[in-house]
Amino acid sequence: MAEVGDKPLRLLLGFDYGSKQIGVAVGQPITGSARELCILKAQNGVPDWQKVEALIKEWQPDAIVVGLPLNMDGTPSDISERAEKFARRLNGRFNLPVFTHDERLTTYAAKGERLQQGQTGGYRQRPVDALAAALLLQGWLEENSPD
């Protein structure tokens, strides 16, 4: 099981950071799985911190994973710095370990999953941000499993 120091991680929240919406997912290292939770609206990348706090209080995660939007060549994208700032603010506000994870292609993969489920476009009405958060959190769990 993934650990921070000598403390096992039992529950994590994952955030797919965006300037208008932030997808949220929940995951468990013991099962190695993650699932969609919700989408938070953001104003120019700033979420309603009271809603973030409500999620933290409700789920009581041991750590948080924030998607790091890198370019395909691995270099930081325009929004990477803002996602890292969001990660630092989560750590500062809630005093929880916060990890970043490469989220390249998670939105693309999430749209692909929705296409397989029969969704054709309409991503404004049925956004994929929470599914993208679940995929990036799943990736972090796979990279950090102890096997």
Give an account of the 3D structure.
- The protein has 147 residues and is of the alpha/beta class.
- It has a single domain (12-115, 128-143), classed as Nucleotidyltransferase, domain 5, CATH 3.30.420.140.
- 35% of the residues lie in helices and 28% in strands.
- It has helices spanning 49-59, 80-94, 106-116, 129-143; strands spanning 3-4, 7-8, 12-16, 21-28, 33-43, 46-47, 63-68, 98-102.
- The strands form 2 sheets. The protein has a 6-stranded mixed sheet with strand order 6-5-4-3-7-8, sandwiched between helices.
- β4 (21-28) and β5 (33-43) form a beta hairpin.
- It is globular, with a radius of gyration of 15 Å.
- It starts with a strand and ends with a helix.
Topology record:
Elements lengths: L2 E2 L2 E2 L3 E5 L4 E8 L4 E11 L2 E2 L1 H11 L3 E6 L11 H15 L3 E5 L3 H11 L12 H15 L4
Parallel strand pairs: 3-7, 7-8
Antiparallel strand pairs: 1-2, 3-4, 4-5, 5-6
Key traits:
147 residues; alpha/beta; Nucleotidyltransferase, domain 5; 28% strand; globular
Distance between the termini: 9 Å
What's the total helix number?
4
Number of E strands: 8
CATH topology: Nucleotidyltransferase, domain 5
Strand content: 25-35%
- Helix proportion: 25-40%
Major β-sheet annotation: 6 strands, mixed
The largest beta-sheet arranges its strands as 6-5-4-3-7-8
Shape: globular
Query: Which sequence of SSEs, written as H and E, runs from N to C?
Result: EEEEEEHEHEHH
pLDDT averaged over residues: 85
Low-confidence stretches: none
CATH architecture: 2-Layer Sandwich
Rounded to an integer, what's the Rg over CA atoms?
A: 15 Å
Output the CATH homologous superfamily: YqgF/RNase H-like domain
By CATH reckoning, the class would read Alpha Beta
Structural class designation:
alpha/beta
Number of structural units classed as domains: 1
